[in-house]
Amino acid sequence: MKVNKLIAIVSILFLVSCSKNEMKISRADKTVVAELVEQSPIYITKNDDGSFEVNENNRIGSTDWVFSIESNLPLSSIVPDVQRLKEKKYKDGMHPDSKKMYFIYLDTISKKPAYLPIDGFDFVTNESPNDSVLKFKKETSVEQFIQEMVKITTNDTVTEAVKIFVY
Description:
Elements: H1 2-17, E1 27-28, E2 39-46, E3 52-55, E4 64-69, H2 75-90, E5 101-107, E6 112-117, E7 121-124, E8 133-136, H3 142-152, E9 153-154, E10 157-158, E11 162-166
Parallel strand pairs: 1-5, 2-4, 4-5, 7-11, 8-11
Antiparallel strand pairs: 2-3, 5-6, 9-10
């Protein structure tokens, strides 16, 4: 009898401890890039206390970097880290890095992962009247941002460098 109670308690504890938090990535209705060969994931998630965490432990310099970001995070919360990592990847060094950076999302038509190249995106902190700038409110979700950017991105490239102002 005591053994059965002990097994039940251990089983419940085991099941509770094995619960996984799922990351909900963004969705869009078009694939920009369908497949990457060499990639390093970078995760941006929201902690239980409301703070944001960047897990970049898996990044390798000579691979494509893929940002896996929770879809409901506000754009303003990820921009500083994305810009910091972009500068880090492409800083002048002994060996130039020719690999790209991407946001991962789910193509709802093909039901497969797809990738949005972000090398052509320049996140700016203030708006210049002479520049062509795309504006997003700071509370815009990552999913809304990816959906808009997928619309203007074709064949693994943005037509030109895009300045993005988050206000």
